[in-house]
Design brief:
By secondary structure, this protein is α+β, with helices and mostly antiparallel strands. It contains 2 helices and 4 strands, in the order E-H-H-E-E-E.
Length: about 70
């Protein structure tokens, strides 16, 4: 499974504090490893403080948005 981040999501990912960065990466990893999380429509994954919005195309997870609540 290949991961692609659109530019705005990538920018946010690299501007958040380290603990938030780790949580977002963990969410991406969980989506990549969970077949039922791989949907062709928009989907979201939520952690304790962070979230991501994504879609999948064949073997690609496209992360469209990421964010944190603090």
């Amino acid at each position: 499974m290949r991961i692609e981040l659109v530019q705005p999501a990538a920018s946010v990912l690299f501007e958040v504090p380290n603990d938030m960065h780790e949580e977002i990466v963990a969410l991406i990893d969980a989506v990549a490893k969970t077949p039922q999380a791989q949907v062709s429509d928009l989907a979201a994954a939520f952690g304790e403080w962070c979230w991501l919005v994504y879609t999948t195309h064949d073997d690609v997870i496209e992360v469209l948005d990421v964010g944190c609540a603090r």
